[in-house]
């Protein structure tokens, strides 16, 4: 099954979003197309999908000047070596990649083989929360703390009403809950509902609008309760599948069981 491309047009900036197939965890890479250059936001899990994104970017015939990795999880990080542009992350994400990137890459490579990188590419530049003007487009780099992971970057384009929130939101896809930050995650979702951005670009599944925030909150509410009620990993997984039978990203649901139920040993 191939990946899916969605293009969101804008007056000065288009966003081309690639959603990987199920074996790539439905993870998104977004190509921000400015008048004179391209940025890529997140780099895929499998190398073959990273190459597809790089190929598509090359066909746009504009220089690729930046690659961002929003947070250190393998599905956003491990394809970074396939992009020929400097890699930018938040300082805390750079520290995480330095500390844990090698382990993350070797664990995933072990599972999948040649289509997953054996080492994690290290960032070239650190970026703080900041405002910048790129080819006349106002770009806001924002810090997202305590949601799906401790530190993540989001990118807003105020004049276009767009925000790339990555794993703050999964669209109809099972969510990585391994870091268990339910309360602060919900607070971030509520805060984002009040922001003026109508178009929301998630980390997994198709881009959408502000209703994605509410759907995410529902998923978090249900899964937090399911976690309290479940005595085993299988019990938890079944409750989630019963409630969200049509959601994608089954591999993420499986991937996190060892974080949620560490006492069950090898998975
Ligand atoms: Zn992710």
Largest sheet: 7 strands, mixed
Biggest sheet strand line-up: 1-2-3-4-5-6-7
Number of domains: 1
CATH topology (level 3) name: Metallo-beta-lactamase, Chain A
Describe the structure.
It is a single chain. With 267 residues, the chain is an alpha/beta fold. The protein has a single domain (4-264), classed as Ribonuclease Z/Hydroxyacylglutathione hydrolase-like (Metallo-beta-lactamase, Chain A). The protein is built from 8 helices and 12 strands. The protein has helices spanning 47-59, 74-77, 91-112, 182-193, 211-229, 233-243, 250-255, 257-260; strands spanning 4-8, 14-19, 28-33, 38-41, 64-68, 87-89, 125-126, 130-134, 137-145, 151-157, 162-170, 199-204. The strands form 2 sheets. The chain has a 7-stranded mixed sheet. The chain has a 5-stranded mixed sheet with strand order 8-9-10-11-12. Strand 5, helix 2 and strand 6 form a beta-alpha-beta unit. Helix 4 runs antiparallel to helix 5 (211-229) and helix 5 (211-229) packs antiparallel against helix 6 (233-243). The radius of gyration is 18 Å and the shape is globular. It starts with a strand and ends in a 7-residue tail after the last helix. The structure holds zinc ion (ZN). Zinc ion (ZN) binds at residues 27, 73, 75-76, 167, 203-204.
